[in-house]
Amino acid sequence: MSETGIKTKAYAAASAGSELVPFEINRRQPAPQDVLIKIKFCGICHSDVHQAKDEWGGAIFPMVPGHEIAGIVERVGEQVTKFKPGDRVGVGCMVDSCKACESCNEGLEQYCEKGNVQTYNALALDGKTPNLGGYSEQITVLERFVVSIPDSIPLDKAAPLLCAGITTYSPLKHWKAGPGKDVAVVGLGGLGHVAVKIAHAMGAKVTVVSRSLGKIEDAVLMGATGYVATSDQASVERASNSFDLIINTVSSAADMNTYLNMLKRDGVMVLVGAPADLLPVHPFSLIPKRKSLAGSTIGGIPETQEMLDFCGQHNLAADIEVIPIQQVNEAYERLLKSDVRYRFVIDIDSLIGEKS
Ligand code: NAP
Ligand code: ZN
User: Fold this and answer.
1) What distance in Å separates the CA atoms of residue 188 and residue 199, rounded to the nearest whole number?
2) Theoretical Cys-Cys bridge with 186: which of 75, 248, 263, 294, CB 3.0 to 4.6 Å?
3) For residues 111 and 303, is the Cβ–Cβ distance under 8 A?
4) Do 273 and 250 meet the contact criterion of CB atoms below 8 Å apart?
5) How far, in Å, CA of 42 to CA of 29, rounded?
6) Ligand 1 atom nearest 340 alpha carbon
7) Which class is 164-295 in CATH?
8) At what angle do helices 190-201 and 164-174 cross, to 10 degrees?
């Protein structure tokens, strides 16, 4: 450890679309309100792939991706009250915000009027320090942006909840998924499979809308009672006028009108999937039955803690494939082919053997 920073092994992409390779970074020494976390596991979100390829534009390189972080508190600053060394904690997509606007004051830091400060591919509030993410051994984070992971959830299965969990819990709660509600989840990937489990635990009737029949057995195990394969036109037609709420997690361009047609009168489709493409919507997909198309991003810190506690109480977590970090590039390729059931999680201890 040096006075200036804490040497930390990581994996980074040097430029858009380049392979991730070993990379050494410096973490800041914990300031009075900071928590230094030893990262144990980090999930691979499709957003990591979008950003490492700079699909959304404006990416900052070298980039250390990773915003589904689960680990153990190593050290805390003197003003930290919520955490102590040894605690099981998580960090998601944000590590800071203005902390003064209306949204921040309501605990909706993700909608900070000045823009939330993302865990990676963003500059810190000083406007010049690039933030680096969770594909790394340690991270220093403001206490306010750290959450507790319930003892009942293993850290590896908890990691994906920090993004996939909160990104789906928040709109499910906001649009009142629960008993008597027909909810569809489009795309059974990282976000989608957690959405199915959470919506089921909230008491809603859940249907999976996937491209093929290949995931039907898994969907049932996760709590779905309905399944639509969009490859089968008859199945799509049967699903017309069926859902109060659709959580759409699709990661690349797809025809939104097909899904909107599945909403009932006054139904809402919420986009959480974030392909870079424009998604054309026909006005008559919305007008005749007063339907709404909405969007939602992650969730605030209080809601993230609420989501983790909810998952702990309902004995619910992600279905994962744990990989050493040396397989991260292969995992990106497989994720693009939806060849993962249902989230890759990097075992960060695999960095120990890497040369720095
Ligand atoms: P993922 O694991 O790759 O899952 C996406 C799923 O979408 C796939 O498993 C697939 O499901 C379906 N899909 C993919 N391409 C499709 C296509 N062309 N047509 C129809 N369906 C398709 O990705 P993820 O990690 O869950 O992330 C999903 C999206 O959410 C990404 O765009 C990500 O950037 C975004 N995201 C947004 C937020 C937010 O705050 N709003 C947070 C996290 C992630 P089937 O095989 O079942 O068809
Ligand atoms: Zn994510």
Assistant:
1) 13
2) 248
3) no
4) yes
5) 21
6) 2
7) alpha beta
8) 40
pLDDT number for residue 85: 98
Q: Does the beta carbon of 65 lie inside 6 Å of ligand 1?
A: no
**Sign of the dihedral through C-alpha 342, 343, 349, 351:** positive
Q: Distance from the CA of 49 to the center of ligand 2, in angstroms?
A: 10
> What letter does residue 129 receive in the DSSP assignment?
P
Closest ligand by atom to 91 CA: 2
Answer yes or no: is the C-beta of 215 below 6 A from any ligand 1 atom: yes
- CA-to-CA distance for 56 and 79, rounded, in angstroms? 37
Domain ranges of the chain: 6-163+319-351, 164-295
Q: Which residues in the chain show pLDDT less than 70?
A: 1-3, 356
Locate 193 and state its tokens.
Answer: 């499979």
Query: For residue 343, which ligand has an atom nearest its CA?
Result: 1
Give the Å distance between the CA of 117 and the centre of ligand 2: 14
Mutate to test the pocket of ligand 1, among 279, 338, 341 (most ligand atoms within 8 A of CB): 338
Closest ligand 1 atom to Cα of 110: 40
Q: With a 6 A CB cut-off, is 231 part of the ligand 1 pocket?
A: no
pLDDT digits (tens, 9 = 90+) for 149-164: 999 999 999 999 999 9
pTM score of the predicted model: 0.97
Domain range 6-163+319-351, its CATH number among 3.90.180.10, 3.40.50.1980, 3.20.20.150, 3.40.50.790: 3.90.180.10
CB within 8 Å of 68: residues ≥ 6 apart = 42, 43, 44, 45, 92, 134, 159, 160, 161, 162, 163, 164, 345
DSSP H helices, the chain, are: 46-52, 102-105, 155-158, 164-174, 190-201, 216-222, 233-238, 256-260, 301-313, 328-336
Query: Ligand 1 pocket test: which of 249, 297, 319, 345 has the largest number of ligand atoms within 8 Å of its C-beta?
Result: 249
